[in-house]
Design goal:
single chain, alpha/beta, six-stranded mixed sheet, four-stranded antiparallel sheet, 12 strands, disordered N terminus
Length: 294
């Protein structure tokens, strides 16, 4: 895996924004396709200074975007804007080719069902079995029970937890609960996935298990995604590893290669200061980026 790089103390004279032109950030094939989601000059505030200010970026089909930044810079807010749970004060957000910034809720709901969301800490319902947690959206859609059982078992098998079908969340470890939450996000074969700190609060070994599932989903189904994290080890692992179906596990890319469609965004005080590949990130001269990587 790519090692952390010591850039030395920040240089106050270094340029602030670090946003490479399209095609210069390692986004090869995915970047040439129409975006799944696109932000253009998006800003939002909550009774005070802007939480996000003039944000512009996009996610192409098959692309994984890793959103970095310290706590409180607006990462979770950005995810909620992606699926219309929040509306921007200004700017444009296109989701699956449709403008959603001011879209009525009844029109937005069908688009939202095409997105799988992994919430912070998993957000399972303790009063429901694993089966009913994973099937929650299917139950709301009145899918027949036999089909629900089949699809839940398939989703649990994908995350290695088929034996927990009838368990309640309280009987599961923290890592198992997070894997159930991932199965819930995968159940409808979504057109986009949003991961809000999926490894937050987990130990390094369990975090690696979660990252392996995310790499598996990326490489097997090619679902575009945005993943929020402040853990550089997890972020770098996503870039430098692939899922080998032959061995049913995650392995490093050979010769120091990285996944060309897994790229980075970084927020600082509500502004997007970086958009590019792992190589661009490691070479960045932006003082905040350099300090964050140390």
């Amino acid at each position: 895996m790519t090692a952390f790089t010591n850039f030395g103390p920040p240089d106050p004279d270094s340029p602030a924004p670090d946003l490479p032109d399209p095609g210069q950030s390692g986004k090869k094939s995915a970047a040439d396709k129409a975006p799944v989601v696109a932000f253009r000059n998006v800003s939002i505030a909550f009774d005070g200074p802007s939480v996000l200010n003039d944000i512009t970026f996009s996610v192409a089909p098959g692309e994984t975007r890793i959103l970095l930044g310290p706590a409180g810079v607006g990462k979770s807010v950005l995810l909620k804007l992606c699926n219309g749970l929040l509306r921007p004060d200004s700017g444009s957000i296109q989701l699956f080719g449709e403008e959603i910034a001011a879209m009525p809720e009844e029109k937005l709901f069908p688009l939202r069902t095409r997105i799988g969301m992994v919430f912070q800490e998993g957000a399972l319902f303790d009063s429901l079995t694993v089966r009913d947690n994973v099937a929650y959206q299917l139950i709301q859609e009145n899918v027949p029970d036999d089909e629900i059982d089949t699809r839940v078992r398939e989703a649990l098998s994908f995350v290695g937890l088929e034996e927990t079908f009838s368990f309640f969340p309280a009987s599961l470890s923290g890592g198992m609960r997070r894997r159930v939450a991932i199965a819930r996000a995968f159940i409808n074969h979504p057109d986009m996935l949003l991961y809000d700190s999926p490894t937050g609060g987990l130990d390094p070994v369990t975090s690696t298990t979660i990252i392996e599932l995310i790499v598996k989903e990326r490489d097997v189904h090619r679902t575009p995604s945005i993943l929020v994290t402040h853990r550089l080890q997890d972020a770098f692992m996503l870039c430098t590893h692939e899922f080998a179906t032959k061995y049913d596990c995650m392995i490093p890319f050979p010769n120091g290669e990285t996944d060309p469609n897994t790229t980075f965004l970084m927020l600082e005080e509500g502004r997007l200061i970086f958009d590019g590949s792992l190589q661009d990130l490691l070479k960045s001269q932006n003082p905040f980026v350099r300090e964050f990587l140390e």
